[in-house]
Amino acid sequence: MIQLTQAHILGAIIAYLLGVFIVPIVIYFSDKLGLVDVPNERKIHKGKISRLGGISIWLSVILTFLFLVLLSYYPTGEGLSGIITGGSLMFLLGLIDDIFCLNAKFKLFLQITIATTVILLGVRIDTIFNPFGNDIELGILSYPISLLWIVGITNAINFIDGIDGLAGSVVTISSLAIAIISMVTTPSSPISALVAFILFGAMLAFLTFNYNPAKIFMGDSGALFAGFMLSTLSITGIMSTGGSLMYLPFLILIIPIVDVAYSSLRRISKGKSPFVADSEHIHHKLLHHGFSQDLAVLTLSSVSLVCAIVAIIITGFLNKYIIFVIALVLILFLLNAVSKTIKKNS
Which of 173, 172, 174, 178 has its CA nearest to residue 193? Predict the structure, then answer.
């Protein structure tokens, strides 16, 4: 049986390599089948672009996970079955929406159903850290709070998926931060870290083709899957450990949280549904103020990166894992640079 640290390294690298291989295939078949995103008054891209990037992200994560099992690594951990199953169901929901355009209320109902199933499987927030006394046991409030977090973050990632590379960059940064923190918290959650590292590799590969000008969008299938994975992994990997560190996911996911809160309150104040799409998200505001797509993505991604680094520093991440993580990140970003060069010359 391979060791856990080896599984982390292999998981991230295999997911990345699979993603680089799968994304061009998805682009090809999307074009052939006409499953592309067509520009309209709300969208800023030009030309027809594949909207099924979620297929490559989901396949990269699931195939990598199964490959590790074939290598005789049998991951077990609290909430693992719920995360994998729920993530796959959320991906399927998004895929159906990408193809058939589901009603927003019906889609929300299905998201709540999936999240409820996962909560019943053990992925939930049971206590809240109280700096002034004993931790607060949520009891029956555990369900609505867990539901709000899972469904909220899932949709928050979908909300920021409006310009090339933004959602992908935020997910890549956030998944890496969650992976690192899950390894060093007490008690640690190596299984959550493993899945987060796999998501990191898969999303980095997707970004190779999603930066401006994008050749593929993650679509609802990718955004809902990624958002669901971040929300649940942050619960099992960080929030469930208790203590003040349970609030770190709010810092790591600051960009999507602020955007979904701002967008929802703005729409509700106008008497509209918070799930009806518009062009007034934070990234749209930056574009309206003269930012280019690249500058807007760089600005928001930089805020996300700084917050992620601060969250990692708060955990006191100064142990033996730092060399492993730095080496892994350097390897993947080197592979990413090579892939971009090959893509440009092809």
Answer: 178
Q: What is the pLDDT of residues 128-156, one digit of tens each?
A: 988 887 889 999 999 999 999 999 999 99
CB atoms within 10 A of CB 261: 13
Amino acid at 316: G
Task: Give the CA angle between residues 151, 153, 154 to the nearest 5°.
Answer: 60
The boundaries of the domain holding residue 205 are: 4-345
Question: How many domains does the structure of the chain reveal?
Answer: 1
User: What digits encode the pLDDT tens for the residues 65-108?
Assistant: 999 888 767 666 667 888 999 999 999 999 999 999 899 899 99
Tokens linked to 76: 């077990």
